[in-house]
Please model this.
Amino acid sequence: MTRVADQLIQTLKSEIHSGVLKPGDQLEEAALAHRFGVSRTPVREAVRSLVESGLLETRSRKGAFVRTLSAKEIMDLFEVASELEGLACRLAADRLTEDAMQQIRAGLDACRTAAEANDAHAYASANLQFHAAIQRASGNERLLEQLSDIETRINPYRSMPYKMRNRLPQSVLEHRDIMNAILEGDGARAADLMRSHMMLQGKRLPMVLQNVPQERAAIGRID
Amino acid sequence: MTRVADQLIQTLKSEIHSGVLKPGDQLEEAALAHRFGVSRTPVREAVRSLVESGLLETRSRKGAFVRTLSAKEIMDLFEVASELEGLACRLAADRLTEDAMQQIRAGLDACRTAAEANDAHAYASANLQFHAAIQRASGNERLLEQLSDIETRINPYRSMPYKMRNRLPQSVLEHRDIMNAILEGDGARAADLMRSHMMLQGKRLPMVLQNVPQERAAIGRID
DNA sequence: GAATATTTATATGCATACATATAATATCTA
DNA sequence: TAGATATTATATGTATGCATATAAATATTC
Model:
């Protein structure tokens, strides 16, 4: 991982994730090369990788842009993610180990604590922890990669989580039911509960989304 | 799509799909460049794209190789594919149009014809047609991309379909039940049937797979 | 003769230079 | 002045050259 191109991939991913680069922003090779003090060659390789992973798009002879997703595309991604989270539950129920179970329980406890404190930011983190624990418990590496990719692509469109503050206690209850179903080895029920849980979030997506279709100014470098 | 790099991507994908390039084969930049009469630059870009899409892997300072999947990795991919095929059925049942229904029916008819003729090759094609019709009926573009990617990655490990010849009539019956569930709007049942259908194939995977873990000679060019 | 060290070869990684297509600007004409 | 054409500018696409790390082959020593 000492390659310049790989470091560029990480940096650009991070800047897209954090919102420094927003959907629609243009990335000019020469500007990026100058900014990072390298030549265009590794920049181009990084861009090609990010295009393939869906974070950037290239318009012919016009260069690379941070990919803009329509509301439909975001919903499509969310539907797939919901189904895969359900699969993670079913597999977790079948293959549960003692260690995995403790990690899931720790995730649930973190959610409960954040909900009682009514701390939406802490809950967002705890929520990730809970879901990640189930995903790892599935024992399916491909599933982890796939869900991580979708998360990466949807994230630029997420606004702050405080908007769902009043749903925290309900979300904790749903998490608890999911965990119990997994512990009881009832994979089918766990999967159904998880899909319902995800879809409740999905119903709220139109409110949570921001800056979906509008045009963006072209900035390749950040000074 | 007039870029040399894009043409290389298509060509290499095709050669991996058709088995000209096999898992473990090395791809040397200079050899590929010479073979296609171009410089190393577009070759490198094509390689980067294929690495990101999972078809190639690069070992540090050793170059690119057609990705070798372990039996575990293939099973992981197959589990995800099965779940997504189930999702396609559920969505298709919810959103079924007249046109989509006819395409699914046409796929089933093609399967039935091939099965009655005991033509395993024709059945493989008809089977794809049936599944593709359901996937399109789902109305979820991301789902199509995802399943296509998985298909592309698993395909190099598939042997000829004649090995499953004695399962053709049973497979047709399963297809029929899946279609009926979709027509009745029972998405949950359709999804369950599809997952079971896929998993029956999965159970047979170890027999159908070939050349999974062994080493391969390094050939970058084909004369 | 075997194991280690040194040298040589080769392929990747990066930088630079050149070619070309698209877009913006300017100029010319009606 | 408005429109169309020509010109210039800029960014992408490709080719080539150089540096370096890994691997292979040879040589050296015990």
Summary: Chain A touches chain B at residues 5, 41, 44-45, 48-49, 51-53, 73, 76-77, 79-80, 83-84, 86-87, 91, 140-143, 146 (CB under 8 Å). The longest strand of chain A covers residues 56-59. Residues 51 and 60 of chain A are 13 Å apart (CA to CA). Residues 28-30, 40, 44, 58, 60-63 of chain A lie near DNA strand D (CB under 10 Å from a C1').
